[in-house]
Amino acid sequence: MRRIARLDRSIDLLRTRATVQAPSSTYLCTACKHRASPFSTSSARDAKASLTEKLRRKIWGTDSPPGLEDPYGGKSVFDQTKKREWEEQIEEQKAARKLQSQEAKVNSLSKPKYTPATTWDGLETLGYVEDRWAADHLYTPFVPMEVKTDSEEITAALHRAMVEIFALREAGVPLESVSSKMPGRDLTLDVTLDQSPSGPVLKFMGDAAPPLQDLVGSVTGQAQVQSKAVDETAEHEVPTESEEDVAADRSTVDPLHPDAEPAVEESFEKENPTESEEDVDADRTSEDPLHQANLVDVTYEELIASWGPEWLQVSLENPEIKFAVLKRMMQLTGIRIPDAHLNSSKTASALLKLLIIPPKPRKLVDALSQKEDLVTLPNVSIYARRITPVDKERSLGRWKVIEKELEERGLPVTGHEAKRAYI
Amino acid sequence: MASKSLQSFSRSLRAIRALPLGVKDPLAQCLAPRLSRSMATETTMPSNLTQEFNPSFLETAADPIYSLPEPTILTTIYKFPTMEPLRFESYDSKHLHLPLRRDILHRAVIFEGDATRQGTASTKTRYEVHGSHRKVRRQKGTGKARLGTAQSPMLKGGGKSFGPHPRDFATGLPRKMYDLAWRTALSWRYRRGELIICEDGMDIEFPKGRFIKRIFSHNHWGQEDGRTLVITNSARENLSTAFETAGEHGRFQMAHEVDVKDLLELGRVVIEKGALEQLLSEHQSDLVPKIRSV
Q1: Which residues from chain B sit within 8 angstroms of residue A338, using beta carbons?
Q2: By the 8 A CB rule, do A85 and A92 touch?
Q3: CA–CA separation, A84 vs B289, rounded Å?
Q4: Cβ atoms within 10 Å of A287's Cβ, excluding its own
Q5: How does pLDDT run across A119-166, given as a tens digit for each residue?
Q6: Nearest chain A Cα to B189, which residue?
Q7: Is the ipTM above a cut-off of 0.95?
Q8: Subunit contact B211:A140, Cβ cutoff 8 A
């Protein structure tokens, strides 16, 4: 606070308050007198009209004089009217644009090639994604999540991989065309490899073995034209109702607009088909998806025995074949072979050994639990961590009682709570 | 009683003195030196050792014409981040299949650690401590010990006699040894299946830690499996930003920032092919003759 009052503004020379009548003994200058005079900071004064407003009222003689509310601050009448006109223009433009877009929509709707949906089931969602960072959206791995551990499953998978790769080679298809999609049904159950002077050759055992083209198709992921199986899309002379329906379902002619050309070639095999397109493809192939159910009865052991021992002796020294077999194995089983073992795996049997042997356990507790003669001892038990007195009480069955009693008395159950109590 | 105990004593003595067949009783030997005696003890070599003994390993790694059992080795090149195998690639055994030499690795790690030391510990000697150098009290007469300056190391507040001073802790290591250590570290990783080589242009779509976490959890590369070091040739914004929040699962480094210690530290190394080749070409001074500038 200043000892000598200084006026902040020249307007303060104007005395709006009653000045203090100082006693003659003390001298006060006008500024100080003015400052010392009583004043109010409450808002009762604000409700009243300011000095300028009062003057205006007096001049015009009415309580609501014409003119701008704030003649000294706000824009002039001319500017304000101009602004209003400008805003109106913008609104008109917006309305016009809205009308146009609506008309466009109406126009497009007036020529429908589809029937507009009434519910949102099955429609593609745009913009809002439920969980953009959901695990499935983020990352599509090449190798499946589950790794096979059963040795028979792995043997069967290796056999399948080898048969498929050699089938591709026999058909003359490049080995890089193995599809990276999830492997489908196993068609190699009745096919095996034989050694011949010119190299390994496919051996089709029995009638259940599919033709080479089917095998190649299942690997490359393209449905091939079946010649043997019944053509369900063929039209019979006297079709039954259900057959008519099926035929109608599968034809590309639109019943509502028979003359219109089909815009989308739905039978064309696309590179990355969507789920619905895959379903359509599945419908149109003659492979019976339930056929596999019949083979569950055959055990892996019988299958492996039926193939014989020769397929294991096939050499994998050709790096192209080795790579293709390993890649297919990865897709089927999820097992990855470390690079250092690539050189040493020269035959299928060597590769199988590497695949079947499970990795060494990383923790001692896992390694000890695998030792049969240790686990079967009656007086030995293996724990993963230090055995505390609480563990001993728990094994005896007393712990629940102790815990309940301690809680009832309000005492700390474990020592850590007691430490915290001091803080 | 005495005779019995004597008998048992003599019996035990005999038992002690009963030597196995073929070994002569040393007490009955002549102690005079023999005129002809072989310097080496005679023994037989275990049979399996003679079969596997490969004299070529006696040649030192520094010898430029030493040979390893296989001249080249195969590696798989993967596509990041789907980890789809793309093709095989073969490298020289002397780059990625060297035998494990722990002593050389140790020396290289120590060498790097020494070079990394800041060496900024500093203390003041008695000559540097601030203060007057006046004699604190007279030599004789006070019953107390004689004192010179107040900065003497004997006194509280005085200087430190042989304290640390800022210095350079870097040591030397022959360049060929260091390069051999580099390649030995990479070879060790390769042998254990912990060297994963990916195609050039390794990067992720979004700079998000959860992306890294998802990839690592699927491939078993994360915290529970020892963490992973990702090495690329050049800066990758998305990868480096993502690793800032996923640091517990691994680390991202560029090839020129990597050390032998970094290669040995984490659980595995995921490296770009270009980065690997750059590192191998930078650290092969013991294999390639020095280019002499004319």
Answers
A1: 192-193
A2: no
A3: 85
A4: 18
A5: 988 888 777 766 766 766 667 888 888 888 888 889 999 999 998 888
A6: A340
A7: no
A8: no
